[in-house]
Specification:
alpha/beta; four-stranded parallel sheet; about 280 residues; 12 helices; Rossmann fold
């Protein structure tokens, strides 16, 4: 695959990567900037709640705490607002204790749980395509995406009930790899972690007081029944440190550049509006 010579610079600009988030002062300023962003979006929209699924990973923990801090400030300013943290397990979540620790850190106004298993299993059982006999591996992949989309469907239903907006957790390290489900976790009303590298997300989480083990926890989308808890980095073929270094313009191997740029181009359709003839 031929790639533009300046593709790295294009990616950095497109994803709004900021190399200056490095020390306590710059992290504090970034936290304040993103809280102000969340407040502004909620007030401008005229909505009353922010809704976010909490998995027990550092991304949803960080986004959730930013949302709760934003809502706390709005309430102090006289604006009626609430943050709703949503647990969205498929049957029983193996690392449920991490999700509960995340909730303790976030201190959300309201917690609700929607188990997506019945909806996902029912839909998968109802899909029959003439002439198609999918492998167990393909079915597992399709079901994983269905889980992600069902979680977003539940969040939007809750947002509709509560006059709210749905919050996403996408950041630059996932965006460059296209590591999100179209119509699932990649779909939201506001994405307060946009532009951050994975390391920067961890810096924000740590500065806001997240438990250390959640800050450094190895990320997993955990969508596959055949390979439960599969680490993101295994799926990528490179580490988050590699991805962050690429995004920040630090030295990385040619093999890492090749992995990242090929994945970025392959997943372009996930980061743009639907293709149209006009």
């Amino acid at each position: 695959m031929n790639t533009p010579a300046n593709l790295q610079a294009q990616i950095q600009a497109t994803l709004s990567v900021n190399r200056g988030i490095t020390d306590a002062e710059s992290v504090s300023l970034e936290i304040a900037r993103r809280i102000a962003f969340i407040k502004g979006i909620l007030v401008k929209s005229g909505q009353k709640t922010l809704v976010l699924g909490i998995s027990g990973g550092v991304d949803s923990s960080t986004a959730g705490r930013l949302c709760q801090l934003a809502v706390n400030e709005l309430k102090a300013e006289g604006y009626d607002a609430k943050f709703i943290a949503v647990r969205l397990p498929y049957k029983t979540q193996a690392d449920e204790q991490d999700a509960q620790a995340a909730l303790q850190f976030i201190q959300p106004d309201l917690v609700t749980t929607v188990n997506i298993a019945e909806a996902v299993d029912g839909m998968m059982a109802g899909i029959k395509i003439e002439g198609i006999d999918p492998s167990a591996e393909l079915t597992d992949f399709v079901k994983g995406n269905a889980k992600a989309r069902q979680r977003m469907l539940a969040q939007y239903a809750i947002a509709n009930y509560t006059t709210g907006l749905v919050v996403g957790t996408d950041h630059a390290a996932e965006a460059v790899m296209g590591f999100f489900t179209k119509g699932g976790d990649g779909f939201c009303d506001l994405a307060p972690l946009s532009g951050l590298t994975k390391g920067q997300v961890r810096l924000l989480a740590k500065q806001m007081g997240a438990p250390e083990y959640l800050v450094v926890k190895a990320p997993t989308a955990d969508l596959e029944d055949l390979d439960p808890g599969k680490l993101d980095e295994v799926a990528y073929g490179c580490t988050y440190e590699d991805i962050d270094n690429y995004l920040l313009g630090n030295p990385v191997s040619e093999s890492v550049v090749d992995i990242i740029e090929k994945m970025y181009l392959k997943t372009e359709h996930k980061r743009v509006m639907p293709y149209s003839p006009v």
